[in-house]
Every structure is written in C-alpha cells, then in structure tokens.
C-alpha cells in the first residue's frame, strides 16, 4: 500500500480519466466503499442515526454519496452543509431524492441546529475539506470543528469518521490546525495521504483504513509512488526463509559492538534482540567490565572481551582486535551503550572509517555509534560498507545540524534527503518511523506507541536489524522489516501492560511470535 501526496493523487485521477474511468465514477466508488465501512462500524444502517458534515468541494460530494447509500440502507441521515455547495449540485439532488435531511450553516448562525444533530447522532462523518487546499480553520468551519470536538470529548462513545483525512490536517505535511477534527477512523480514498502518515496529523486520524475506489490497476502500477505504507503482507514478504535442512550457519553470524560500564543493559538487549529475530550466531564484543556481567546473563551468546579505558568505555585499541576478526562475521552492529567521548569517537573512527581494513559487510549503526560518528570528518564518504543508520530525532539533529523541531515537522523529507545524501539506508525512529533508501524508496511504519518510550527499546531494535542483516536481508528491507517487527511486538506488549510500565525486555518474547504470525496468520500466534 502506497502513501501519496495530493499532486500524486491528482495525477492518478487524471490518468484514470484517460484510461476510461471518470472522476465521477471514482467518487461514486469512494462513497459506496465509505458507506460500507461505516455500516460495518455502526453494526448495520437500519434505524441508526448518522450526521455528515459537508464541505464545498469534492470531499463534500463524497459525503453526499455516502449519505445517499446510508439512507438507502435504512439509516436516519442528516447532512449539515458547513460551507456552501455549488448551485448545480447533482450529488445533493440525489441525496435529497433519497430522503436525506439537509441543513445549512447559512441558516444556523449560532450552530444550535448542528449541536442538536451532534447530540442525536450515533456517528459523525467529517467530509468538509479532505485533501483539498489546506487552509486555517476559521469562520463557520472553525466554529463547527470546535463544536464537534467538544461533543466528541463529552461523549467518547460517539464515533467520528473522516473521509480521506481529518478537516484541519495539511494533506502533504501533517501540520494541523488547533481546531482539527479528531477522528476515530480515517477512510483513505485509494491511498493514505502523507498528512496522516506524519505527526501531528497522524494523531488526529485514529485508525487508518485504505479503501479501493476503482483506480485502474495499470494506472497505479505505472505511477512512480516510492513511499510504502508497511502492512503485514509487505513485512511478511521480506522475512528470511527458514529451510527445514538449515543449521546455525545458514542464518549468519552477527557481531555486536556495544556497552560500557554505565550501560551494560544496552549490550544485553541488543544481543537478545538478534537471537530472537533468528540470527544463527551472535558474538558480543564489549568492554571487560561489561563482559563479566553480560557473560553471566547471555548463555547463548559468544563473547569477545575488549580493552577499556579508565571510565569503562571501549578503548581505541579494541578497534584493531575487532578488525582482525571482521571477516568471520556476516554483519556488524555498532553503538548501543558505547558512551560518547573523545576516546569512543576515536574508536568508532578507527573501526568503521580508517583504511582498507574498515568493514565492508552490512552493518547497523545506532545510538552512540551515530553520536560518535557525527564528530568524524566526512564520515559518509568514508563508510565502506552498506549501513542502516537508526537515529532518533535528537541523534538526527546531531548528524544533520537541523533543529529537532524542523526534523519532526517533515520526517519523510528529512529521512529521504539524509539517505540520499549519505548513500545509506536511514531508519528515522519515532511515532511512525520512516525507513528510507538512498534510491528514494521509503516506508512508513504504522506504529505510534507510548509503551516504547522506555530506555533500551532502541537497543532491541538494533539487535533485530543486525540479526536480519546477518540472515542476508538487504539493508533497506532490514530497516523496514526490523522497525515493523519492533512496532508490532510493542503493540502486543501495550495491549497487555498498558501505556506505561513496560520495559524494553518485554519486547523480546514477542519478536518470534510476531514473525510466526506474519508467516502463518491463520495460526493466530499470540
């Protein structure tokens, strides 16, 4: 499933018209598909009360088609025209012919009629602005949106469904007006728009359901749509095979360079993340003081103790010890809990950037690996291997020099531009993490989970990605699949423990179960 800009969607509609499927046909298809989904949500239509908020453009026309179909199925339907419709309006005429009640804000200056309908309705459909031109919510639109939000908060049992995207969300960036209508579900027409893939807009969308509106398959196939909305099917397609006649060597050998005296747990979590995702062998290279603790806890892991400095961080001399052995490993993971100092910067530079012995195999670089890398001159040109870089917004700010707020304002663009500039795969972590390849491909991972706001969650993710790289998954696939497995496992944890109180190690048991569920969804793992 793709994610599109307004311009891309308009181009698809124009191409559809040329292919013989008119815009009016797409609109009728969209309205019918929305009505079907709304009936499912209400548990049927007969006798149910629905209020549709109608705007002046195509989104409002979609709403009128929905109203007609709900009325045909026996629902009590009221359309409230928030902003005037055109004088010649066939969709309005059709809705009236089917017995839909229509009220107009022009006849309701104090919005009392709207408030009455909001109190009566079991479900509200937001079809005011959609993916048209973004504008501030002022005047009657702003007042109506504010009233809808107040009534929704007062009665959480009343559902709000947005058509294409919530009114008030910028369809291309996700910027949101302060009075944006918060939806419980957004019915994306054809494809989700960027505005509900990026926060804050995504926070107003609720559940996102993409609906087939009848775009000719050849039109979508011919379009250049590089941004993917990751689904179970897309993730399952990347999973490495597990042949029955395999052995531990079949699934690669990951070397993890992690940990320091103050961050022992980071090394532990990364190693277990790699084991749980199916790496055949995992070696943990960590400072001597960390090794003594980690070896007692990690019985399945191979250990490579490293010399350390006076503060318990890895010593620069350890780089040569690792480089002597680097050819024995399928993939490398660097950074979790290393600490950030002149000594660790020198170590990272010596290990990853200096000379012909720098690793050429696939690698994932995270956390203090990135922080230390940012202090090395011309580091992107000096990385010899294909890497997955996994910054959170703060680390991305360190790497790029951009303010964190600027990064968060357009995460898709920042991740994509960074991947192209550095020539490496980037996984920009956070709510709806973004995987971006140097060639322009991007994946939006549909997870926003406060249970992940816990120390160590990123270390588990590094182990997952490293374990996938060791099994032969290409860097972009490892980033997208690794982030998906991490987010899906976190959703399982959240469903059992709630928004607060989960710890990073809670994720570990759900990683193999999540993979099993992707491989055999009918088995119902977990």
Summarize the structure in words.
This protein has two domains: 6-225, YjeF N-terminal domain (Rossmann fold, 3-Layer(aba) Sandwich); 247-521, Ribokinase (UDP-N-acetylmuramoyl-L-alanine:D-glutamate ligase, 3-Layer(aba) Sandwich). Helix content is 43%, strand content 14%. The protein has helices at 6-18, 23-42, 58-72, 90-97, 112-120, 139-154, 201-205, 217-222, 232-238, 264-277, 288-297, 318-325, 342-352, 368-373, 379-382, 393-400, 404-409, 411-422, 457-470, 475-497, 510-519; strands at residues 49-54, 76-81, 101-104, 123-127, 159-163, 185-189, 207-211, 227-229, 253-257, 281-287, 302-306, 331-334, 363-365, 387-389, 425-428, 434-436, 442-444. Helix 12 (318-325) packs parallel to helix 13 (342-352).
How many individual domains? 2
- What's the overall geometry? elongated
Specify the biggest β-sheet: 10 strands, mixed
What fraction of the residues are assigned to beta strands by DSSP?
Answer: 5-15%
- Runs in which pLDDT lies below 50 for 5 or more consecutive residues are none
Question: Please, what is the average pLDDT?
Answer: 95
Count of runs of 4 or more consecutive helical residues: 21
Radius of gyration: 26 Å
Strand order of the largest sheet: 8-17-16-15-14-13-12-9-10-11
What distance lies between the first and last C-alpha atoms, to the nearest angstrom? Answer: 25 Å
CATH class of the largest domain: Alpha Beta
Tally of extended strands? 17
Find the CATH superfamily of the largest domain: Ribokinase
CATH architecture of the largest domain: 3-Layer(aba) Sandwich
